[in-house]
C-alpha cells in the first residue's frame, strides 16, 4: 500500500505553537506502541542475529557466522525451496479460481450479491480455523473427502490424503484456495468495475470478440489491480505457517517445513535464538524487497495509465 | 428448460443453441428465441452459481451439522453430516474437557479480541486526528514510519517481542498479547482514521470550537459521530484479526489457562493417547467460526469499505 504524504495540508492557516505539541500528544500512544513493539524489535533482531544466543547462559558475539551457517544449512535451503514452490503453486491456483469468480460475480444478475458473500465467507475465518476444519475433512477414517470418494465408488479404500507429500500438498492448496480465493476475487472485482463501460461497449461495436476484449482491454486496464492481488498473494504465501503446522505438522518426512516454520523451530523449539534471528532478517529482507518491487510495479502501472 | 447444462459458462450455452429464425412470423419467433436463450443463459449461470456456493459453503455446513452428532457418531465420517441418532452436545462436552474448559478459552479469546478492538479504535482515533489536523515537525516521516511497518512481517520479530514482553512483566499475559495485536493493527487503522478525519469539513470543527467544545470533548462529542463508519471498519478488522491470530498467541502464551481458542485447539488436534477426538475438533471449529461469520454478515458494508480502502491505495 503506497502512501503519498499529503503536503497540501501543510499549507493551511498557521496555528499557535502549542498546537504542535497537542498534535504530538495525539499521536504519542500510537508512536509509543510502534516504537516499542516494532522498531525496537526489528533492531533487536538484527543485533541478535550477530550473536550465539541461547535461551539460558551468556550470549556471545559471533559476527556474521550465523549467516555463513545458513548457506550450508540444507534444512534451511530446503525450507526456502519448499516455500518458493508453495508460493508459486498457491498463487497460480488462487488466481486460476479467483479470476473466473470475479468475472462471474461482476455480472448484474439476480443473487449475485449472495454469491459474492458466500464466496467471501471463508476469508473472514482464521487460517488456523480453516486448517483445523480441513485436516478433519481430509482425515482418512473420520473425515469427509476420502470416505465420500469411497462411498461414490471412485476409490476402493479411503485415501490417507495427508500421508504422502503430493496429496497432502494438493489438499493444502485446495484448502488455501477455498480460504483465500474470495479475497482475491474482491480485489480483482474492484479492478473490473473500474473499467469504463463505454470503452468495452465501443470495442464490442467495433467487432472485438469476447476473448479479444478480455485479452486486449480488460487485462491491460487491470494491470495495477492484478499486480496488487499478486503481491498480496505472494507475501501471504511466503509467510505461510498455520496450515503446515496444523495440517501436517511439517509434513511427510519433514518436507513441508516453510521458512516461518523453520524459524519457529529454530527459535522456539531448539532455542537457537541468535540463529533464528538471522533467519528472520533474511525473511525480512525478502519481504522488504518484494514491497519495493510492489511499489515499483504500481508506479509503472501509474505511468502507463 | 434444459436442466442438463451443468456448470457451463453462459456464453457456451448461448453458442451451443443455434437459433433458427423462421421467415413467416419472424418477429414472434425471434422474440421467443431470444427469451429462450436468455432463460438458458440464466439457468446455466445459476447452476454454476449453485456449484460454487456448494464448494464454499459445504465445509462450514458439514462441520456445523456434524458437531451435533453423538459421541460415537462423531468419530465416523460425516456421511450424511447431520445427526442420525439424535441431536447431541457430546462434541461440545468433550471439547470442554480440554485445557481449562471451552468457556474459559472462548472468554480468553473474547477478552483479547475486544480489548484489541477498544485500544485500536481509541489509539488510531487519536493518531488519525493528530495526523489529519495538526502540524508538527517530522509529521510525514512519522506517518510513513507507521505505515512502513506493514512491509515487515511480524513473524520475523517474535523473539524480541517475547523478550520485551518478559522485561515488562507481560510474558504469558493476555494484555501483552493485546498490545502486540494493537500494534499490528495500527498501520491500517491509523491510515483509515486519518482519511476519515480528512473527509470531515474543517468548518464543523470551527463551529464547535466557537460553541466552546475543545480537545477531547470536541473529538468525542462532535467528530466521533462523523468518523464512526471509519471507526467501525477499524473495529471489525481488529476483532477478526485478533480472534483468528495463531502464531503470536502460540509463542507468547505459555500457560494452559491463558490459551486463546486457536492455541487450545492444538491440544485437541494433538489428541490423547494417540487418538484424536474429531467431534471436539468439529465443535472447536464451530466455536471459532460463528463469531467471524456473524460479525461479517452484520457489518459486511464496513468490512468491504476497509478492503476497498486497502485495495485502492
Automatic annotation (TrEMBL), chain A:
Organism placement in taxonomy: Bacteria, Pseudomonadati, Pseudomonadota, Alphaproteobacteria, Hyphomicrobiales
Name used for this protein in its record: Sugar ABC transporter permease
PROSITE patterns: ABC_TM1 (PS50928)
Family listed: Belongs to the binding-protein-dependent transport system permease family.
Subcellular location: Cell membrane
GO cellular component: plasma membrane
Segments crossing the lipid bilayer: 23-47, 84-105, 117-137, 168-189, 225-246, 275-298
Keywords of the record: Cell membrane, Membrane, Transmembrane, Transmembrane helix, Transport
All residue ranges annotated as the ABC transmembrane type-1 domain in the record: 80-294
Membrane topology: Multi-pass membrane protein
Gene Ontology BP term (one): transmembrane transport
Amino acid at each position: 500500500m503506497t502512501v503519498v504524504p499529503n503536503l497540501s495540508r501543510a499549507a493551511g492557516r498557521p496555528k499557535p505553537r502549542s498546537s504542535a505539541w497537542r498534535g504530538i500528544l495525539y499521536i504519542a500512544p500510537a508512536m509509543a506502541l510502534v516504537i516499542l513493539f516494532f522498531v525496537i524489535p526489528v533492531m533487536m533482531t538484527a543485533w541478535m542475529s550477530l550473536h550465539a544466543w541461547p535461551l539460558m547462559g551468556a550470549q556471545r558475539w559471533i559476527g556474521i557466522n550465523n549467516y555463513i551457517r545458513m548457506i550450508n544449512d540444507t534444512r534451511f535451503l530446503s525450507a526456502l525451496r519448499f516455500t518458493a514452490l508453495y508460493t508459486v503453486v498457491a498463487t497460480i491456483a488462487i488466481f486460476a479460481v479467483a479470476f473466473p469468480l470475479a468475472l462471474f460475480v461482476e455480472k448484474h444478475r439476480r443473487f449475485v450479491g449472495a454469491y459474492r458473500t458466500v464466496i467471501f465467507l471463508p476469508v473472514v475465518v482464521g487460517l488456523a480455523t480453516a486448517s483445523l476444519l480441513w485436516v478433519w475433512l481430509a482425515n482418512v477414517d473420520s473425515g469427509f473427502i476420502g470416505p465420500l470418494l469411497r462411498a461414490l465408488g471412485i476409490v476402493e479404500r479411503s485415501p490417507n490424503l495427508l500421508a504422502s507429500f503430493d496429496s497432502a500438498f494438493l489438499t493444502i492448496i485446495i484448502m488455501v484456495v477455498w480460504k483465500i480465493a474470495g479475497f482475491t476475487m474482491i480485489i480483482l472485482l474492484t479492478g473490473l468495475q473500474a473499467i469504463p463501460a463505454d470503452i468495452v461497449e465501443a470495442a464490442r461495436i467495433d467487432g472485438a470478440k469476447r476473448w479479444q476484449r478480455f485479452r486486449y482491454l480488460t487485462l491491460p486496464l487491470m494491470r495495477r489491480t492484478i499486480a496488487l492481488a499478486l503481491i498480496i498473494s505472494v507475501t501471504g504465501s511466503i509467510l505461510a505457517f498455520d496450515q503446515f503446522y496444523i495440517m501436517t505438522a511439517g509434513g511427510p518426512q519433514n518436507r513441508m517445513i516453510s521458512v516461518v516454520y523453520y524459524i519457529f523451530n529454530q527459535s522456539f523449539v531448539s532455542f537457537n535464538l541468535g540463529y533464528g534471528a538471522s533467519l528472520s532478517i533474511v525473511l525480512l529482507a525478502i519481504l522488504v524487497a518484494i514491497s519495493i518491487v510492489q511499489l515499483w510495479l504500481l508506479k509503472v502501472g501509474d505511468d502507463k495509465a | 428448460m434444459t436442466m442438463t447444462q451443468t456448470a457451463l459458462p453462459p456464453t457456451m450455452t448461448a453458442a451451443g443453441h443455434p437459433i433458427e429464425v423462421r421467415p413467416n412470423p419472424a418477429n414472434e419467433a425471434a422474440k421467443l428465441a431470444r427469451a429462450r436463450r436468455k432463460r438458458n443463459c440464466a439457468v446455466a449461470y445459476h447452476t454454476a452459481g449453485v456449484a460454487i456456493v456448494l464448494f464454499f459453503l459445504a465445509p462450514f455446513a458439514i462441520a456445523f451439522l456434524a458437531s451435533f452428532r453423538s459421541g460415537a457418531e462423531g468419530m465416523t465420517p460425516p456421511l450424511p453430516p447431520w445427526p442420525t441418532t439424535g441431536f447431541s452436545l457430546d462434541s461440545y462436552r468433550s471439547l470442554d474437557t480440554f485445557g481449562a474448559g471451552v468457556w474459559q478459552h472462548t472468554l480468553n479469546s473474547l477478552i483479547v479480541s475486544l480489548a484489541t478492538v477498544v485500544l485500536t479504535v481509541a489509539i488510531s482515533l487519536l493518531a488519525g486526528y493528530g495526523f489529519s489536523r495538526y502540524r508538527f515537525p517530522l509529521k510525514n516521516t512519522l506517518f510513513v514510519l507507521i505505515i512502513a511497518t506493514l512491509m515487515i512481517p511480524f513473524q520475523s520479530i517474535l523473539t524480541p517481542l517475547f523478550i520485551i514482553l518478559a522485561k515488562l512483566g507481560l510474558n504469558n499475559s493476555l494484555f501483552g498479547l493485546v498490545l502486540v495485536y494493537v500494534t499490528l493493527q495500527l498501520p491500517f487503522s491509523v491510515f483509515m482514521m486519518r482519511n476519515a478525519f480528512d473527509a470531515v469539513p474543517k468548518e464543523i470543527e470551527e463551529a464547535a470550537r466557537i460553541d466552546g467544545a475543545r480537545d477531547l470533548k470536541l473529538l468525542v462529542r462532535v467528530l466521533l459521530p462523523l468518523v464512526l463508519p471509519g471507526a467501525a471498519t477499524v473495529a471489525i478488522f481488529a476483532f477478526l484479526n485478533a480472534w483468528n491470530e495463531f502464531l503470536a498467541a502460540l509463542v507468547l502464551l505459555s500457560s494452559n489457562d491463558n490459551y486463546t481458542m486457536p492455541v487450545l485447539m492444538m491440544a485437541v488436534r494433538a489428541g490423547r493417547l494417540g487418538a484424536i477426538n474429531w467431534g471436539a475438533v468439529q465443535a472447536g471449529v464451530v466455536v471459532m467460526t460463528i463469531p467471524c461469520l456473524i460479525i461479517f454478515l452484520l457489518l459486511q458494508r464496513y468490512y468491504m469499505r476497509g478492503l476497498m480502502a486497502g485495495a485502492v491505495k
